[in-house]
């Protein structure tokens, strides 16, 4: 009888210890997964450059009427705002596509463009439209508009930051890897942008000619991916305009799309990778 009691006590002690050990292991694996990029000296790195082009019929790009603060939000009296979710030039070049290396574990120190880490709210637009922020860095936000804005962040970061004053600056640390959707909660329902919180510097955003360039890449085999935000309006949501204290309808967009290729980078040599994207 006493041996059975001792056996039960042993099990009662062992099981919690096992659970705590497993939890600790999972936390350690998660921490490693988020910090598995090593900065090394890249003395003879290669480059990848290329372009992103659209193939097939061009979809109708969503636009919304400017329904609030037209003196600030519509200085050119266009009465309508392009949502900037898909920007295709006359020659098919696609801007605002993020091109990056997927399986890179070591390389140069973080040198992402400062422009992509600073947001300005100007004429009721987010400028620029796509942001690249290193994991753990501070995302800097400003409003140049003399009207109330609130930056609603969702996804890898969740926040709602009011900007009641013109030229107000705010810094928000972004700790989690992933995508952060930006919208306005002050009735400017067309305002939208995307932030990518990243762990390494091998990211680029295509320019107006659809071009990109990645530099100082350690020689090796990689996967390179083109990421584009969703451009379709799939539904609308009812949200409170915090300034007017009235409900408004705000668009919800389709999921991002990706295109992936294999690439070999040689020491000190250029490599060209071009993407052709379109409706999937």
Short key terms for the protein model shown above:
five-stranded mixed β-sheet, single chain, 2 domains, Immunoglobulin-like, mainly beta, four-stranded mixed β-sheet
Instruction: Return Rg in Å.
Output: 23 Å
How many distinct helices?
A: 2
Alpha-beta classification? mainly beta
CATH superfamily of the largest domain: Cupredoxins -  blue copper proteins
Q: In which order are the strands of the major sheet placed?
A: 9-15-14-11-12
Q: List unreliable stretches of 5+ residues.
A: 1-34
Number of strands: 23
The major sheet is characterized as: 5 strands, mixed
CATH topology type of the largest domain:
Immunoglobulin-like
Outline type: globular
Q: Give the % helix.
A: 10-25%
Order of helices and strands: HEEEHEEEEEEEEEEEEEEEEEEEE
Secondary structure layout:
Elements: H1 2-34, E1 38-39, E2 46-54, E3 63-65, H2 70-73, E4 80-82, E5 98-101, E6 106-107, E7 118-122, E8 125-127, E9 130-134, E10 138-143, E11 149-155, E12 159-163, E13 168-173, E14 178-184, E15 192-198, E16 203-205, E17 211-217, E18 220-228, E19 233-241, E20 246-253, E21 257-265, E22 270-272, E23 275-277
Parallel strand pairs: 1-6, 2-22, 2-23, 7-10, 9-15
Antiparallel strand pairs: 2-17, 3-4, 5-16, 5-18, 7-8, 10-13, 11-12, 11-14, 14-15, 18-21, 19-20
Would you give an account of this structure?
With 280 residues, this protein is mostly beta strands. The chain folds into 2 domains: 1-34; 40-277, Cupredoxins -  blue copper proteins (Immunoglobulin-like). Helix content is 13%, strand content 45%. It has 2 helices and 23 strands. The strands form 7 sheets. Strands 9-15-14-11-12 form a 5-stranded mixed beta sheet, with no helix packed on it. Strands 2, 17, 22 and 23 form a 4-stranded mixed beta sheet that branches. The longest helix is centred in the first third of the chain and has 33 residues, at 2-34. The N and C termini lie far apart (69 Å). The model is unreliable at 1-34 (pLDDT under 50).
């Amino acid at each position: 009888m006493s041996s059975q009691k001792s056996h039960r006590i042993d099990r009662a002690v062992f099981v919690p210890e096992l659970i705590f050990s497993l939890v600790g292991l999972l936390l350690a694996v998660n921490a490693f997964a988020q910090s598995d990029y090593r900065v090394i000296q890249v003395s003879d790195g290669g480059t990848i450059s290329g372009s992103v082009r659209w193939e097939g019929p061009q979809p109708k790009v969503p636009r919304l009427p400017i329904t609030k603060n037209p003196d600030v939000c519509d200085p050119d009296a266009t009465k309508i705002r392009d949502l900037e979710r898909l920007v295709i030039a006359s020659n098919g070049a696609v801007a605002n596509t993020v091109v990056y290396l997927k399986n890179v574990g070591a390389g140069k120190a973080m040198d992402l463009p400062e422009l992509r880490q600073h947001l300005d709210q100007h004429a009721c637009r987010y400028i620029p439209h796509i942001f690249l922020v290193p994991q753990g860095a501070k995302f800097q936000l400003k409003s140049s508009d003399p009207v109330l804005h609130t930056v609603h962040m969702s996804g890898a970061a969740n926040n709602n930051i009011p900007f009641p004053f013109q030229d107000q600056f705010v810094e928000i640390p972004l700790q989690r890897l992933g995508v952060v959707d930006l919208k306005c909660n002050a009735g400017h329902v067309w305002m939208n942008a995307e932030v990518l919180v990243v762990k390494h510097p091998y990211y680029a955003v295509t320019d107006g000619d659809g071009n990109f360039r990645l530099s100082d890449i350690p020689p090796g085999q990689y996967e390179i991916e083109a990421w584009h935000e969703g451009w379709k309006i799939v539904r609308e949501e009812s949200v409170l305009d915090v300034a007017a204290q009235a409900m408004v309808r705000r668009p919800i967009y389709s999921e991002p799309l990706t295109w992936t290729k294999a690439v070999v980078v040689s020491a000190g040599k250029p490599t060209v990778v071009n993407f052709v994207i379109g409706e999937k």
